[in-house]
Amino acid sequence: MRKKQNTSAQTKQLTKPSSKQGRKRLPRKRRHELHFDLASLLSIDHACGGCKKGKKCCCATYEVCVTTAEMKRIIRVMPEAVKICSHLRTDAGFDNVFEEAGQGLFAIDTTEDGLCLFAFMSNNKIRCSLHAAASTLGLPLEQVKPKACLLWPMTFSEGNEVLSLTEDALSFSCNSRRNSRSRRLSPSLTEAISIVYGRGAGTALEKEALRGHRVRR
Predict the structure, then answer these.
(1) What are 103-152's pLDDT values in tens digits?
(2) Stated pTM of the model
(3) Antiparallel, parallel or unpaired: β 89-90 and 93-94
(4) 53 vs 60, 102, 111, 127, 169, CA distance in Å?
(5) CA-to-CA distance for 158 and 3, rounded, in angstroms?
């Protein structure tokens, strides 16, 4: 998803081992810092049960862009996704749903109504065929779904990565504002952070929140 850089958020950083492998010349693993806007992430509860038809849906609101690596992972599960989304099949095989968006990114195409081509209806709710394909094939979600989709309603800035809440999060029915200040993340956010940034990342961030840590602007 194309995101605007958050330049004013209060942030907290965690240091995690890099996910890059195979650099045999390095004496130890590279490390990188993950920055989080704790104040915004603690301000909501999030629970996704699929969007009802006619309601505002993340699958029809944003332009989802994926990296080359993400695109290749999606292509590998196309045979399973097409079983759910028959419109992805053509006489020649599978529809080309990616459009080059520059800087090594590819935008996922949408329907005339703006709905992601990997979305489908089930029990009058919009679902993700990539999520369903991962479940059917027994694959971890991070090996199939784009990072931006896994993290939503969180968004990450470009460059020095800062994870915060997307500006329009509360306009979606799956998100609700908390009435009082909490030191615990919504469980779904904790899970998403761990899926994307590595096992334990969400729990580590939650521990920081429980300590009441804040970082000055």
Answers:
(1) 889 999 998 888 999 999 988 899 999 999 999 999 999 999 999 999 99
(2) 0.78
(3) antiparallel
(4) 11, 32, 15, 11, 18
(5) 8
